[in-house]
């Protein structure tokens, strides 16, 4: 039976397709479904099969499991439920349309190339079958095609990009959660969440993640409120100090859309207005960091292969050696002999998270002291971070490597010893995650920082000379 045959009435139920927006508050697709007035079939599709779709890493799968549980409970509280399906999203959604006789399909937009291709396929097939298919802006303050240079091009430097965003005026205010939804009366088959095996079992390494995080919309709102009320004042002054609780820790909640950027933006903006100079400065700085998330998605939209291809093509000639397996393993385990790097990597393994300043230091060490391709580090973070974001993760690694947009110059090498003296001078952060620090059990340093820095700079200079030699003459 085709979708058209199943759709006896244009007033059939609405398929509400959840993706990276696992929340009820400020969910434009959910609001559109409620306003349509028909019963709602809410569905989440675990798609690891569509062409180009990148499967989630292990830590993100752990988060997804708990987030879906939380979403299901929230939907039940307002009269609905959550259908779980696994497979290629286009086939799954169109099959569900046929099963239910749906008259509409709604979702909030995503911005990766493969994801947009899936959405286009569904929208075209649904439209051809006489079904209303609509998508909405729920995940970015400013969608990529709305922020362009005066010449109509794309920004590759953050500061003018964010200036252009700010000039567009205040983003819309968040939408309220619906009080109730009309459920679809007929039974709809759903997978059991446990059958997806998103949680680790043999062994169960997620104990530290469970101690550190509360996935789901309620956890996101509580974390946002705590940040605004308790730690925002310290943000501008102390956000680079990993031992100080001064950052929001909202990144995994934003990654899975348990809170919208509009909600976060207006909470920070409200805190900024009429506040003390210190609080206002911190709020402004925090809003700019939300801007970096926007900038990363702008880059991903225009460069779908951001996680695998150098943004700056001259870096394609960089002479990456065969990675040293022992050095890579030492980095992954936090056994390099450099405390700030090791503490960060152990924090990552224990909690699924790493302080952003330490991320830059750990990434720089892998790329420029171990001479290991940034893509290998990006893959490790993708698998181990609970906030492994397809835009921010790739853009961040390319920024450190020097191959990305608005990149840190390649000759900027984060010296982990100097960085520790500056940002963890008492060693509180390092000692928290390295109990054997200062004893004979702690590993020796696996490389000489000066020698490896010079080797990396020499390789980069060779690439620069090659690029200059191959460039066309000026004029």
From TrEMBL:
The record marks 320, 374, 397 as: Electron transfer via tryptophanyl radical. FAD binds at residues 235, 247-251, 286, 387-389. InterPro entries: Crypto/Photolyase_FAD-like_sf, Crypto/Photolyase_N_sf, Cryptochr/Photolyase_FAD-bd, Cryptochrome/DNA_photolyase_1, DNA_photolyase_1_CS_C, DNA_photolyase_N, Rossmann-like_a/b/a_fold. Pfam families: DNA_photolyase, FAD_binding_7. PROSITE patterns: DNA_PHOTOLYASES_1_1, DNA_PHOTOLYASES_1_2, PHR_CRY_ALPHA_BETA. Coiled coil: none annotated. GO terms for biological process: nucleobase-containing compound metabolic process; response to light stimulus; response to stress. Residues 12-141 form the Photolyase/cryptochrome alpha/beta domain. The keyword Lyase applies. Its cofactor is FAD. Keywords: Chromophore, FAD, Flavoprotein, Lyase. Binds 1 FAD per subunit. GO terms for molecular function: deoxyribodipyrimidine photo-lyase activity; DNA binding; FAD binding. PANTHER family: CRYPTOCHROME, CRYPTOCHROME CIRCADIAN CLOCK 5 ISOFORM X1. Belongs to the DNA photolyase family. This is Deoxyribodipyrimidine photolyase. It comes from Marisediminicola antarctica.
């Amino acid at each position: 039976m085709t979708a058209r045959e199943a759709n006896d009435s244009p007033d059939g139920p609405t398929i509400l397709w959840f993706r990276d927006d696992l929340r009820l508050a400020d969910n434009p697709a959910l609001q559109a479904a409620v306003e349509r007035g028909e019963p709602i079939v809410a569905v989440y599709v675990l798609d690891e099969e569509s062409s180009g779709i990148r499967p989630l890493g292990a830590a993100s799968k752990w988060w997804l499991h708990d987030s879906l549980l939380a979403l299901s409970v929230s939907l039940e509280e307002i009269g609905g439920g959550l259908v779980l399906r696994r497979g290629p999203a286009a086939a799954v959604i169109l099959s569900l349309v046929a099963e239910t006789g749906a008259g509409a399909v709604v979702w909030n937009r995503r911005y990766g190339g493969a994801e947009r291709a899936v959405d286009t396929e569904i929208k075209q097939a649904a439209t051809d079958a006489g079904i209303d298919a609509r998508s909405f802006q729920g995940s970015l303050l400013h969608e990529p095609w709305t922020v362009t240079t005066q010449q109509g091009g794309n920004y590759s430097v953050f500061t003018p990009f964010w200036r252009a965003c700010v000039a567009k005026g205040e983003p819309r205010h968040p939408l309220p959660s619906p009080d109730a939804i009309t459920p679809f009366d007929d039974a709809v088959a759903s997978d059991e969440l446990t059958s997806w095996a998103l949680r680790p079992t043999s062994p169960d390494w997620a104990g530290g993640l469970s101690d550190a995080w509360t996935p789901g919309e309620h956890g996101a709102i509580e974390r946002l409120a705590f940040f605004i009320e308790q730690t925002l004042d310290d943000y501008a002054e102390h956000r680079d100090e990993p031992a100080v609780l001064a950052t929001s820790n909202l990144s995994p909640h934003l990654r899975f859309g348990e809170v919208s950027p509009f909600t976060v933006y207006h909470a920070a903006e409200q805190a900024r207005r009429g506040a003390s100079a210190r609080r206002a400065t911190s709020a402004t700085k925090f809003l700019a960091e939300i801007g970096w998330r926007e900038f990363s998605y702008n880059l991903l939209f225009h460069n779908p292969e951001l996680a695998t291809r150098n943004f700056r093509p001259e870096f394609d000639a960089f002479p990456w050696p065969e990675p040293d397996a022992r050095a890579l393993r030492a980095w992954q385990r936090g056994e390099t002999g450099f405390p700030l790097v090791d503490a960060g990597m152990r924090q990552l393994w224990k909690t699924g998270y790493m302080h952003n300043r330490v991320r830059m230091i750990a990434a720089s060490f892998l790329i420029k002291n171990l001479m290991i391709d940034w893509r290998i580090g990006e893959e490790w973070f993708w698998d181990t971070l609970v906030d492994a974001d397809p835009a921010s993760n790739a853009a961040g690694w390319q920024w450190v490597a020097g191959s990305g947009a608005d990149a840190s110059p390649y000759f900027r090498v984060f010296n982990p010893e100097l960085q520790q003296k500056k940002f963890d001078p008492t060693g509180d952060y390092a000692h928290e995650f390295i109990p054997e620090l200062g004893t004979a059990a702690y590993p020796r340093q696996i490389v000489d920082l000066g020698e490896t820095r010079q080797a990396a700079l020499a390789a980069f200079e060779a690439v620069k000379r090659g690029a200059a030699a191959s460039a066309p003459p000026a004029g």
